[in-house]
Amino acid sequence: MDGGCGNAVIEGVEICDDGNLEPGDGCENDCTSSDDVPALWTLTMGGPNTIPDCGTGVAFDSENNLIIAGYVLDSVWIRKYDTSYEEQWTVTYPGLPGALCTDTPLAVDSNDNIAFAGVTGEEANADFVFGLLDPDGTELWSVIYDGPVSRADFVHGIAIDSHDDIIVVGEQENPMNDVEGAVLKYSNDGALLWSDFFDGGDTSQGGAWDVDTDPCDAVVVSGFSFSIASDHDIVVRKYDVDGGLEWEQTEATDLTDWGYAVGVDGRGGVVVGGSELQPPSSYPDFWLRRYDSDGDEQWSILEDGGAGGGEQVFAISIASDGDFWASGITGPQQTSTAAWLRRYDDAGATVWTRTALFPGSGNVWQAVARAPDGRIGAAGSAQLPFPNDLEAHFAVYPP
């Protein structure tokens, strides 16, 4: 189709163009964005007032079954639903007492086994907990990883490569640099294959927030480094299959920058998301950048949502052709936030945006995943009216 709405090219006043004239599919037949497209399914759950609960993991298996995870009632909480959204099972692991919404990332291997991660331990000694569940929710193995000084070790991301090996990333305390990024690769039966640790240099800090793999099983990690000279900077590191560092890129400003999310497409292209703080504003703007497989920048997006609120990208799910879905938080007002979900093409153009707004300031999508049938799953939190508190919130949207 040449020219006009429906040709898959955003032109003129068009907000989106998904290449068809079907209404209600996320981009309307007049090429306006379907922010108001209702979710196919939602779940909000949590504990009593004063105890925050968060959804921080979502995935789909090869049969389009939904798996969600969160930090609920001081537990690492994992649940599976079938395609009719009927609960199949729930598994929990002890969490970190008194913790505020620690990460619980998920990934699914070629046999539909579910890799999970979370934080466990005692208040003064947080540890990684991660492992593998079979499709029926039975544990195949699990590991508790305690860093070198047995203190604050927090897991943030998990991924699986084409050999079903599992990569776990996070941050750990060490005796010299306080906090350093941790990248751990395990075989599918739970044996450590290699590890790497990084910081900001000169006894500064570092952390790994997310991880993905490319078609050759290279590992790409996003995170941060910290030094007194430049504050927090975004770091992107690519490792070969054996853990050798292929390249590293940084986004350094004078203020605070975070690399929360990463996705790798079928050509090895890398999309990284996070936030940058731009003076004089005290609120962050959301940041996206695409690199080619060699680490060369292709494009960048820095966007301010306006109204004085803060915007951040917390998760990315990417297709083999390079189109991707990003989720996070936007501040339409200084007194409230909205959880936002957006689809981009591989050139960084917006296809559609969907938002979820509840009263209060805790609304966010912290994880996103795409099912084989095209549905989009999101996990996050919603601030509900008293006597509720911050509650775990999950949704599935049409493509």
Question: What does this molecule look like?
Answer:
It is a single chain. By secondary structure, the protein is mostly beta strands. The chain has two domains: 1-34, no CATH class; 49-397, Methylamine Dehydrogenase, Chain H, CATH 2.130.10.10. The protein is built from no helices and 28 strands. The strands form seven sheets. Strands 1-28-27-26 form a four-stranded antiparallel sheet, with no helix packed on it. A hairpin with a 5-residue loop joins strand 6 and strand 7 (114-122).
Chart the SSEs and their pairings.
Blueprint: E1 41-45, E2 54-60, E3 66-72, E4 75-81, E5 87-94, E6 106-108, E7 114-122, E8 125-133, E9 139-145, E10 154-160, E11 166-174, E12 178-186, E13 192-198, E14 205-213, E15 219-227, E16 231-239, E17 245-251, E18 257-264, E19 270-277, E20 284-291, E21 297-303, E22 312-318, E23 324-333, E24 336-344, E25 350-357, E26 364-370, E27 376-383, E28 390-397
Antiparallel strand pairs: 1-28, 2-3, 3-4, 4-5, 6-7, 7-8, 8-9, 10-11, 11-12, 12-13, 14-15, 15-16, 16-17, 18-19, 19-20, 20-21, 22-23, 23-24, 24-25, 26-27, 27-28
